[in-house]
Amino acid sequence: MVRIQLLLALLLVNGAALAAPSFSGKGHAEIRQQERAGNEAGDDLGQRYEGLLEGQINNGRLKTNAILMGRYRSQYDDAEDKVRDEMRSDAELRELYLTWSADRFEIRAGKQQQAWGRADYFRIVDVWNPLDLREFLLPYFDNYSLGRQPRGMLITDYFGDTWEQQLIIAAQRKTTRLAPAGSDFAANGMPATLPAVNEEGSGVDIGWRGKIFWSGNDIELYAFHGYHADEMLTFENAQLVREQPERDMVGTSLARPMGDWVLRTDAAHYWREGRQTASGIEDSSRTSALLGFDRVENEWTWNLQLATTHWYDEESNHDDVWESSVSVEKNWSRYRLTTGLLWLVNWVDDSSQLWRATVNYEFLPQWKVGFAAVSFDGKDDTQFGQFDNQDRLMLTLRRDFSL
What pTM does this model have? Predict the structure, then answer.
């Protein structure tokens, strides 16, 4: 994949129009003090520091984008070696890709992100970038692009008179990043030591998206063949190994105005979808769909969603999964104040919930202070309930800047 990217970069540079390059950039620096809510046991959450720098170089039809990010979490200074190495700090070149634009074509190559679908929080057709779940969904709520993992991809977009079409090829496999055992958001049942990764074979993800605007409807169609973002456990030569099962999907999404509201839908059928069972990976299939409504009025933003998934394997006791979300945000622009409330519900056998309340105040240009409270509720074996002892309060000071 690296050789392909380098070759493409040379071709793009040779074909780019000669022009004086220009540079633009932005970023932020942030410090967050975290405290456990109530009398919950656990290590002191301490401080979380984050810095991000994003830059773009324009040279005619060619653009180069890069994002650098670093994080440090004082909570894990005295943790065991494996947890400390995984959780204490990050320093990475998150994104680096080239974009070449023509009248009807755009080609992007490199480490990047590509979001599919209309859903927030629920990934019905969004298959390309695995999540980073080491801090569960908390970074994703702050900025969904920082809760995802960029990966090496070649993306070609064609802008026709009626249809827009996109082709994506990703030869670099990428998996969901999980919290290690012993950290705050390690999932229940996570082994202290995971088995080796099954290195046999190499796989390529390939996908197509078509987009059309018709009679007031913004419609997209999707097709994907590749591998699941989640590693699952299976037996290989009488040994337990981690493997990414294959998956095949066709899907669609729609957005259209309905009076003061905007209707959003995602729907997908995975006719081949691996599923973790006690005996290994089961080759199954599923159908997922989402219905959402948005409204923006008088500085109020409302977002309502309902999602469902039906599995077709007969032996499962969890054939149907229901999920929903309610998000309300109020922007007090006169006072440079924004308040928000998010409520997520997951239902399999028992319901579990996540509540998140936020207040953000811009006390000076590009300076913000924010407060957030996060609460989990449900039984120990549910999606949110397993983190019932991770309720927390967070006070954040942030400085944005432009270059």
Answer: 0.90
